[in-house]
Write a structure and sequence with these properties.
This protein is of the alpha+beta class and 85 residues long. It is built from 5 helices and 3 strands, in the order ααβααββα.
Amino acid sequence: MNETFKALSDPSRRKILELLKEKDMTAGEIHEHFDMTKPSISQHLKILKGAGLVHDIKQGQFIYYSINTTVLQDLIGWAYNISKN
C-alpha cells in the first residue's frame, strides 16, 4: 500500500488517473494533456503500474493504459475502516 500512496502523492499522476477514468489512452494521448516530456510521462506511468493503479494492454503497435479500479476500491475500503475505528 505504500507504493500506492507514493504514486498518488504526485499531482501529475493523479491527473493521469483522472484522464484514464474517462477512457483508456495511449502514452501519446496522455502526453497531450501535459507540459512535460514523453519520457517523463512514461516514468509516471511506470510508477502507476508498479503501484497497481493502471494496467496496460497492447493493441497492434499501441499500448493503451487503463485505470485499475480494484486497487482504488481496496484503498477506499481501508480508509473507511480506519475512520470507523
